[in-house]
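Session log. Operator J.P. requested a structure for one protein chain; no other inputs attached. Running the standard single-chain path with token output.
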Amino acid sequence: MRVAIIGAGPAGLFVGAALARRGHQVIAVERDPGPAADGSWRRLGVMQFHHAHAFRHQVVQALQEELPEALRRWLAAGAEPVQTRLPDGTEIPMAMRSRRETFERALRASALDQPGLQVRRGHVDEVTRRDGRASGIRVAGTDLAADLVIDASGRAGRVTRSLRPAPASGGPCGIAYVDRQYQLHPGAGPGPLMSPIAWQADLDGYQAIIFIHERGMFSVLLVRPIADRVLAQLRHEAAFTAAAQAIPGLADWVDPARSRPITPVLPGGPLLNAYRGQTGPDGRLALPGLVFVGDAVATTTPTFGRGVTTTLLQAQRLLGLIDEHGADTGAIGESFDAWCAEQIKPWVDDHVRMDEATWRRWAGEDVDLRRPLPSDLILAAGEADPSIRAAAIGYLRMTALPSSLHAVEPRAHARYAQGWRPSLAPGPGRGELADIVRAALRTAPAPALV
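Structure written below.
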């Protein structure tokens, strides 16, 4: 089968290389030129490329099954597998410590080595049609015929935007973030940890999060309400540094005696949770012969590190359906849409509920006990009832859907009804953090606060 893929990010490269291994003729079109001669990689059009990411064990499993050479390259580049200990003492694989750039370099190099996959630089003008079905893509005025077209262009893809309605679930979540990468000095130990891959502080009105990467590298995120104009100034180095040094725990990580920054401060912008299926406004496939995958289907905020995982889960399922249905692209699209609605949309809906509840709490509202508790508050109640934590392992590892928490939600609800609330991490509240930002910018060149 001839397959044309729009985009050569993680979804496009993984699916494209795996299909080529199966004997299909695949071309992926990507506007990004790849790494430059000096080794740098801007990754055009992918804002999140240099931001914090987490790689759960499902990502490792996907590479093991479909592209083992990419996994070998990833490990050789420094990616660090980590394990977690279950309540019974059993240790199981949990995740991989890595930057997204390290992951993509390994995946891209392996995909480019795969016979049968051609990655072409260019811009896709449109998906061509014949008899009401996708017949290929048009690139710089040239038609490339295909039996199946896969849109892996991500959340910002425009070529097929008119074919589907606005997100069926989600939208802007009222939260934004800014982050920066650091690296531990040789011989320096890490700061405080809550898991082998992360540290998080829930403070009064905002969050501070650390994602652990490979070779002593880590990302620091400061997450805030989008409406806070003062904390928007955290994008300036002086403000970010002063804020990080004022938060206990985080200050240990960014202590100049322990680590050094290796990137500028990276504004992340407003965060989005969005789900789009395979269908158009009439409920039928948006275009038979065209399948959407990856961020073109589901986007979640980065606080739980689910993005690449949901992308490769989709990619594996799509590969299985192509194996099953062959050239019946209509059956592929319909089956994939049903699977995504059952297995991927719940993760987006989970984020929608959590993020809405988060910014409401940041605005001073109490826990709303008239509604089912969002997942983060159920997990937090494990502080008061350890049985909740034990029941949440599948959810945390993404081996069980968010609905798996329904069984323990009544226990968490009872704790909140009794007046219990999660304890806030020590550190400045949002108003105090705003004062720290103002003070830092008064002594450093920066645009005036609005």
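Operator note: The domain at 2-168+276-347 is CATH 3.50.50.60 (FAD/NAD(P)-binding domain).
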